[in-house]
Amino acid sequence: MDALTLAAWSFPVLLVLIFLRVPIGLSMLLLGLLGSGVVYGSVSPVLVQMKTLAYVQFSNHSLTIVPLFLLMGQFAALGGMSRDLFKAAEAFLGHRKGGVGMAAIGACAGFGSICGSSLATAATMGQVALPELRRAGYSGALATGALAAGGTLGILIPPSIVLVIYAILAEQNIANMFAAAMVPGFLAALGYMAVIAIYVRVAPRSAGGIPAVPWSERLRALRAVWPVVVIFVVVIGGIYSGLFTPTEGAAVGAVATGLLAWRNGGLSGKGILTAFELTASGTGMVFLIVLGAAAYNNFLALSQLPQELAEWVGTLGLGPYAVLCAILVFYLVAGCLMDSLSMILLTIPIFFPMISSLDFGLSAEHTAIWFGVLVLIVVEVGLITPPVGMNLFVIQSMAPEISIRDTYRGVWPFVFSDLLRVCILVAFPAITLFILRF
Amino acid sequence: MMSKIIYGASRLMAWFGGFVLTALALLSVVSITGRAFSFAGLGPVPGDFELVEAGTALAVFSFLPWCHLKRRHADVSLFWNAFPSLLKRVLSIVSDGLMTAVWLLLIWRMGVAMESYRENDEVSFILQMPIWWGYAASMIPAVLGCIIYSWRLLESLEVVKANEDFVPDEGGR
To answer: Which ipTM value was assigned to this complex?
Structure first.
């Protein structure tokens, strides 16, 4: 069997291992090492590769940003800002039709601007906003659907761990990726709010309202969220302006949110240790996949499969948009089964050369950035689609009285708004890319 | 008794990694501040990049066992509940066995790499810190990790009793 056939056959084997619930990172690591051994025709080059494999990946300077952002997210969750964010958004939006729900989305967006993880955003904002939504008379379906969707803003709005990993794989500038994700992230929040506005008009009994609050109170509520604004501007602004590197930006963010949590008493006693434990499990998960992907992608590169596949797709004579849409649909389907980081680490080394070889009328860099933002959105849809949408479970576990069936029902309109946004961003790359002109 | 030590050790390692990470974040902030005030005669911490790299490796190696015990490694559990219980048991053993075997192999190779860096006296670019120090530091949590993986394998084999006080995150399951 030649190397190419071997690499092609490794996919079904990998899928079988994964479906047998062998951890995804471990499956990739095993197949990568075995496959490389077969391609080399001997174990000794693999043994040489294994000498530095783990340490080099774990000490990779670009990747040091990941645990720092995870720590930042955990400190942000302890910082007590979630309630302030919700109160501020509610003061401005609460009296409108569907206003409390929109406030929850707004607060998720605010929290997402200092937190790079969807699950942390969903968990933190869910705790604050779910009781408030129920009190305001929201149906279980709408309340849980909105919060599960709102949680994805943690990743869609920079900083974002998925974007960092994409940027490393596609060899793009992290600062530019963050900047390009900004407007689409903002559109996501607006889209979710629009969904709620339509939802409560179609089904008026699914939501209640609260009275308007005077402007003096609105401004006071807004003033309370200044730390979030400062941290976002310093971290993202500092990275984008080149004042510090992305990793240093993550360090600044972790220290700043840590100080915030300390000021609000969140770090006392068990708080900081719990934050460390959650950072540990999150980091461990990312780095086992990173390690596995390094071995597996090394094997694929040895077999020349990604290049051959890209060339083959080129000879099919499909339009670039047909290929792009096929890839995006693939992510939507795979996202129903797999987590976003595993998907990206497994597939970007294969899909990225394909996309790079196609002509979208954009520069190579702009194509890469635009594709990255599109991929980010479609993989995050997987967090809110059944059967394994993690955000759905996180929110639903906080409200055992609401059935998971109701949650599934409530989240569909939000998934639809995601799909609509992807179509718009595919049709108009400028929405994503214009910000890079500044 | 042994079970308590194993689970306690992995928790302590997670905390330790968290402290290391926090220290690295503080180090970076000090370094940025120093660089920003370079006109006043201050400067960045020398070799800050190298320290962050070696420190992150140490933290990641310290985090991995905790993640494993908490069952937080990414997997696909879609068909799991449909499997017969015997198959579930066999798969748990296979999965834990593979994890242990791969890591034993990896730390053996890491040890070999450490030895060769030590023999060649290779040092880092700025701090002139021997490369093997970084490997040696990470080796400690890596070896402890292997012991913890083996323990989980023994639990799956039902040679030892599972720790019932410990609640793994089953994610959405």
So the answer is: 0.95
